[in-house]
Specification:
The protein is built from five helices and eleven strands. By secondary structure, it is of the alpha+beta class.
Length: 223
């Protein structure tokens, strides 16, 4: 059997995992591997897990439950080890690093924010037979040569607007039509302010912009 690892936490974590099942078919009971002050939440699997909807959901449910009652260092889906000794050895070898990361993440969750601007079509610039004099200079329009640097500057401005409500910020590479892809580490005492700020900014930017906020999430990007 292979050992599948969901998250690392502290030895004194309450571990309220009743009613949850792990990954695999069939899933085996959730359990722990201890080493000093650290604890790994694991289960046994007969083969490398596949990213099915069921197993991804089970992985996420375990981490969400752990987050409800203590600090967690979440592992991304698919983390396995040969056996308990391998897990214990990793905990012992990196004990100081893991303890510092847990301290840094204590009381925090992650929010992921992505944004895009809808590209205007040529007919959008004509109203009652008159051409829009600002057409050709709007960021996000098709065929506008300076759209990319303007959107890059806009992404930077949006990110900075949230910085007062976050502990850490980690930009990502936008994909598709997005000009913004950024993750925020937010402490529990700033959570409501952060969400209110996102709603306010999205309203101010208007319907031409599509803001998509996801969270609260396990702090994968900062783990």
């Amino acid at each position: 059997m292979t050992v599948y690892t969901y998250a690392l936490t502290l030895r004194d974590h309450p571990l309220r995992l009743d009613g949850l099942s792990g990954v695999g078919a069939p899933p085996t009971p959730l359990r722990t591997v201890l080493a000093g002050p650290l604890c790994a939440v694991v289960s046994d699997v007969s083969e490398e897990p596949h990213p099915t909807e069921r197993d991804i959901g089970a992985h996420h449910d375990v981490q969400q439950r752990l987050m409800e009652s203590g600090v967690v260092l979440p592992l991304r889906f698919g983390a396995t080890a040969l056996d308990d000794d391998a897990v214990r050895s990793a905990l012992e070898e990196h004990a100081d690093d893991y303890a510092e990361r847990l301290r840094r993440l204590d009381g925090c969750v992650e929010y992921s924010l992505k944004a895009a601007q809808e590209a205007r079509q040529p007919h959008d610039h004509v109203r009652d037979g008159e051409a829009d004099s600002e057409a050709g200079s709007r960021p996000g329009e098709l065929g506008v040569p300076d759209a990319r640097p303007r959107l890059k500057a806009l992404a930077s401005g949006v990110t900075e607007a949230f910085r007062p409500f976050t502990r850490e910020v980690k930009p990502g590479a936008p994909s598709g039509e997005d000009f913004l892809n950024v993750s925020f580490l937010v402490s529990s005492d700033q959570d409501e302010l952060f969400i209110a700020s996102e709603m306010s900014l999205a309203h101010q930017m208007g319907e031409d912009f599509d803001f998509r906020l996801q969270g609260p999430l396990p702090p994968y990007s900062f783990a």
